[in-house]
C-alpha cells in the first residue's frame, strides 16, 4: 500500500506540472500537503514538516546557488565567456572546431545555470556557423551536450549540489567523479553523434545572430579563465590535497573550511569581482546591480528546490521513506540502476531535470544514508537519469527547437537523442567507477 501511495503522489505531481501547467513550486507545495495528510501525519504537524523541509533544503543551498548565479552573470556580462570561446577557437583552429566549442561549453557551463548558459552559448555557436558556413546542428549540439552534462552532473549546479548535501556526499569528490564521467558522455553525445546530423536542415533565426563585444572591450585571457574555473579548481584542490599531502589537525580543519561550497563560491566571486569588474574600471554600483538581476533569474529555481525539500521531509516524517528504502533493498536491481530508472521516469513525465533529481533524491535518501552505497555515485546516477529523453514538456527542448528553427521531428532526433545518450553513458560511467571504489 505504501508504494501505491507514493506512486499516486508522484503521479499527482506529474499531472499538476505536465497536464495542469501549474508552476512546479505550487505543485510541490500542494502535493506535499496532500501527501502528508494521506500518509497519516497529524493535521497539526503537516505544515511544520513542509516548513522544515523548505528551510533545511534552502538553508544549505541558497548561498551556493545565489553566489553561483552572481558569478555566472558576471562571466556573461563582462565578455569573459566570449573571450574564452575566441581563445579556444584560435588555439584549436578550423580542423578541431568542435573540440574548441565543446571545451568552451564545458568551461563556461560550470559557473552558469543551464538556461543562462544556453542563451549565452547559442550566439557563440551561430558566430561559428555564419563565419565558417557549417551546419548549425553539427556545430551546436556538441557544445550544448557539454553544457547539459555540467548541469546534470557537476556541482555547484542546483540538483547535484542539493543531492550531495542530502546524501552527505563529499562535493569535491562528486565533482571529480563527475568530470571523469562527463568526458565520455560529452564525446559520445556530442562530436560522435553529431557526425550523423550534418544533413539535418537548420536555419537559425536572424533574431539570434550574435551581438558581440568589441575585442578591445573583452577581459584578458587569464582573467576570463580564472573567473570561470576558480570554483572547480578550489573544490578539486580541497578534495584531493588530503590524499596527497600529510595534514595536521589544524591544516585539515582549514582545508575542510575552505572546501565548503559556500566559501568556495564566495572566494571565487570575490576574485571575479576584482578581475572582471573593479580592475577593469566597472563601478561597484553597476556590478552590484548585475548581481541583483542575477538573483531574480534564479529565484524561481530556489523556490522549486525548497518545495521539493518539503516533499522529501513529508516522506521522512511519515516514516514512508524508511519503508520504501527497505522495500527497494529487496528489488533485484542495483540501487544505482534503480535510482537512474526512477529519475529518468520522472524526467520523462515532468520534463524538469531538477524536479526529477530532487524527487528521486527524497525517495533514496534513507537507503543511501543507511547502506554502503557510495553517495557521490548515487548523486551522479540520479543526475544522469534526470537528463534522459527530454521532449515536448521540457523548456530546453523548445529553446533548442526555436533557436535553431527546427521541426519537432528534427528536434526529437537531435536534441532528445543527445540528452538520452548523455544519460545512458552517464549511468555506464557510474557503474564503471563503482567497480573500483
From TrEMBL:
Q: Listed GO molecular functions?
A: gluconate transmembrane transporter activity
Cross-referenced InterPro entries: Glcn_transporter
- State what protein this is by name: Gluconate transporter
**Which controlled-vocabulary keywords does the entry list?**
Cell membrane, Membrane, Transmembrane, Transmembrane helix, Transport
Principal place of residence:
membrane
- Keyword Membrane assigned: yes
> Does the keyword section mention Oxidoreductase?
no
Where does it live in the cell?
Cell membrane
The membrane spanning regions, by residue number, are 30-50, 57-76, 96-129, 136-154, 174-193, 225-246, 252-277, 298-316, 336-365, 377-400, 412-436
Gene Ontology annotations for the cellular component aspect, listed alphabetically: plasma membrane
Q: Family assignment? A: Belongs to the GntP permease family.
Q: How does it sit in the membrane?
A: Multi-pass membrane protein
**PANTHER family, A to Z:** GNT FAMILY GLUCONATE TRANSPORTER, HIGH-AFFINITY GLUCONATE TRANSPORTER
Amino acid at each position: 500500500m505504501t508504494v501505491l501511495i507514493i506512486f499516486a503522489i508522484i503521479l499527482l505531481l506529474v499531472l499538476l506540472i505536465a497536464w495542469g501547467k501549474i508552476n512546479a513550486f505550487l505543485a510541490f507545495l500542494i502535493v506535499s500537503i496532500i501527501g502528508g495528510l494521506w500518509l497519516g501525519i497529524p493535521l497539526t504537524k503537516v505544515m511544520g514538516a513542509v516548513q522544515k523541509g523548505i528551510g533545511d533544503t534552502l538553508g544549505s543551498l541558497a548561498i551556493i546557488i545565489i553566489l553561483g548565479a552572481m558569478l555566472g552573470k558576471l562571466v556573461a556580462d563582462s565578455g569573459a565567456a566570449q573571450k574564452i570561446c575566441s581563445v579556444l577557437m584560435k588555439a584549436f583552429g578550423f580542423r578541431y572546431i568542435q573540440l574548441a566549442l565543446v571545451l568552451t561549453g564545458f568551461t563556461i557551463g560550470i559557473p552558469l545555470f543551464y538556461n543562462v548558459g544556453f542563451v549565452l552559448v547559442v550566439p557563440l555557436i551561430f558566430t561559428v556557423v555564419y563565419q565558417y558556413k557549417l551546419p548549425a546542428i553539427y556545430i551546436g549540439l556538441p557544445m550544448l551536450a557539454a553544457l547539459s552534462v555540467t548541469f546534470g552532473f557537476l556541482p555547484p549546479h542546483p540538483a547535484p549540489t542539493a543531492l550531495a548535501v542530502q546524501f552527505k556526499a563529499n562535493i569535491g569528490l562528486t565533482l571529480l567523479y563527475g568530470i571523469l564521467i562527463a568526458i565520455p558522455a560529452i564525446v559520445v553525445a556530442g562530436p560522435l553523434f553529431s557526425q550523423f546530423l550534418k544533413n539535418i536542415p537548420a536555419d537559425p533565426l536572424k533574431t539570434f545572430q550574435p551581438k558581440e563585444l568589441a575585442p578591445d572591450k573583452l577581459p584578458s585571457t587569464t582573467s576570463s579563465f580564472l573567473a570561470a574555473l576558480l570554483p572547480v579548481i578550489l573544490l578539486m584542490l580541497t578534495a584531493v590535497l588530503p590524499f596527497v599531502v600529510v595534514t595536521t589537525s589544524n591544516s585539515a580543519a582549514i582545508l575542510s573550511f575552505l572546501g565548503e561550497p559556500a566559501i568556495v563560491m564566495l572566494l571565487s566571486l570575490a576574485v571575479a569581482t576584482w578581475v572582471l569588474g573593479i580592475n577593469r574600471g566597472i563601478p561597484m554600483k553597476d556590478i552590484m546591480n548585475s548581481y541583483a538581476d542575477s538573483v531574480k533569474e534564479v529565484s524561481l529555481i530556489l523556490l522549486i528546490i525548497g518545495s521539493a525539500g518539503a516533499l522529501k521531509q513529508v516522506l521522512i516524517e511519515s516514516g514512508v521513506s524508511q519503508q520504501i528504502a527497505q522495500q527497494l533493498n529487496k528489488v533485484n536491481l542495483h540501487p544505482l540502476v534503480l535510482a537512474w530508472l526512477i529519475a529518468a521516469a520522472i524526467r520523462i513525465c515532468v520534463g524538469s531535470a531538477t524536479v526529477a533529481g530532487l524527487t528521486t533524491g527524497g525517495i533514496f535518501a534513507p537507503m543511501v544514508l543507511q547502506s554502503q552505497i557510495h553517495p557521490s555515485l548515487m548523486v551522479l546516477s540520479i543526475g544522469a537519469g534526470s537528463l534522459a529523453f527530454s521532449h515536448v514538456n521540457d523548456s530546453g527542448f523548445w529553446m533548442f527547437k526555436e533557436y535553431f528553427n527546427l521541426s519537432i521531428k528534427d528536434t526529437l532526433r537531435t536534441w532528445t537523442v543527445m540528452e538520452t545518450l548523455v544519460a545512458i553513458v552517464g549511468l555506464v560511467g557510474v557503474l564503471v567507477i563503482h567497480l573500483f571504489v
